[in-house]
Amino acid sequence: MTRPVQDPTVHRELQRHGYQTRQLLRRPVTVARSVEVMIKCIRDTQTLVVGDALVTFPYTTDMDGMCLKQAEAYVYDESTSGDIEIQVRRSNAADMLTVPITIEEADRYSVNAAVQPVVDESVVGYSGVNYVAIDIDAAGADATGLVVALWFGLPVA
After folding, report:
1. 74 lies in which domain range?
2. CA–CA dist 6, 100 (Å, integer)
3. Rounded distance, CA 44 to CA 40, Å?
């Protein structure tokens, strides 16, 4: 097993486009090579709202042949009513998760949810994909701030 690492090329590319990245949640990912992307989608004081392409980030050339392996998220203030659902999709509008990231009501972390996100394994590699988008499908109530963590890796042969 390898530890997820912040690839310097991806980090620089994201910063060039105005995104902040940092390692917040750490889980081992079983891949030969991996890229971890941490995205601050919503400021800590801003309330979550339902919407598509809340944040987009480039799918860089050093990620060619990689596919999404794992996804997590957390909010600064938990929802007081209803769950939060977050979808990750490719620029061609295809969802990357068959089960979205869920943050349950009164919780801040998706890793505590009863139903965990499921990566669509029918898609291997993303050649021709220009960017990845983060969508909020359900925002709960009164939740603020959002960070999404994505791990990309080479498909298992």
Report:
1. 8-153
2. 23
3. 9
In a domain, 2, yes or no: no
Least Cα distance to 42 among 150, 156, 147, 157 occurs for: 147
Q: Where are the beta strands (DSSP E) in 11-143?
A: 34-47, 51-58, 67-74, 84-90, 97-99, 101-103, 118-119, 131-139
Cα–Cα separations (whole angstroms), residue 100 to 5, 9, 41: 24, 28, 16
**What is the tally of structural domains in the chain?**
1
Query: For residue 130, which of 33, 17, 48 has the smallest C-alpha distance?
Result: 17
Helices (H), 2-156: 8-16
CATH code of the domain containing 23: 2.60.120
Per-residue pLDDT of the chain (157 residues; tens, 9 = 90+): 333 334 555 555 555 655 555 544 444 444 447 888 999 999 999 999 999 998 998 887 777 778 889 999 999 999 999 999 999 998 777 899 999 999 999 999 999 999 999 998 776 556 666 788 999 999 999 999 999 999 988 877 6
Collect all residues with Cβ–Cβ distance below 8 Å to 61 and sequence separation of at least 6.
none
